[in-house]
Every structure is written in structure tokens, then in C-alpha cells.
Amino acid sequence: MKLFLISQSEIDDYDTYDSAVVAAETEEVAKAMNPSDGGPMAFGRNYSSWCKSLEDVKIQYLGEAVEGTEQGVICASFNAG
Predict the structure, then answer these.
(1) What is the domain extent for residue 47?
(2) Are 40 and 33 in contact (CB under 8 A)?
(3) With helix as H, strand as E and coil as C, how does 22-40 read?
(4) Which end of the chain is more exposed for a tag (fewer CB within 10 A), N or C?
(5) How far apart are the first and last CA of the chain?
(6) How far apart, in Å, are the Cα atoms of 79 and each of 11, 12, 35, 76?
(7) pLDDT tens per residue, the chain (81 residues)?
(8) Alpha-carbon distance 80 to 56, whole Å?
(9) What is the pTM of this model?
(10) How many domains does one find in the chain?
């Protein structure tokens, strides 16, 4: 399992996520994760708290996770209003 930082700057109002650290097997899986629950995003919908397009998600590989780490969100940055 790998650790990635996913981030977006398209939606930057109150009650939005700007980034999250996620655990995933691949960059593609990590990039498609919903920062609120770790599930897959249904891009194309009008989300008010995360970007609307997979192309708007920035991703950075952080390293290998500790053995036994499950896929999902480790920590997310939410800008509450």
C-alpha cells in the first residue's frame, strides 16, 4: 500500500476539502478517492466540497504505508465555514 497526497484548488470556498492523505495501491485509485469517506468519486456530478473533474486532482506520492494499512483516507483537510 502506498501513501499519496491528493489536493485540489478549483473549489476553495467554505465547507470544502483542499487536500487529503490517502492509502491506495495505485495512483489512479488514490486520485479518484473521495476525501470525505475514501470511496470512489463520481466525477461529473456537481460536488460543492471537491473538484468536479479527475483532471483537477493533483497527486503526490509520499511513500510506502506501514504493513497492514487499509485503503482509504488517512487524514483530510476540510475548510469549515
Answers:
(1) 2-79
(2) yes
(3) EEECCHHHHHCECCCCCCE
(4) C
(5) 33
(6) 11, 8, 12, 10
(7) 999 999 999 988 899 999 999 999 999 999 999 998 888 887 767 667 998 899 999 999 999 999 999 999 999 999 998
(8) 21
(9) 0.92
(10) 1
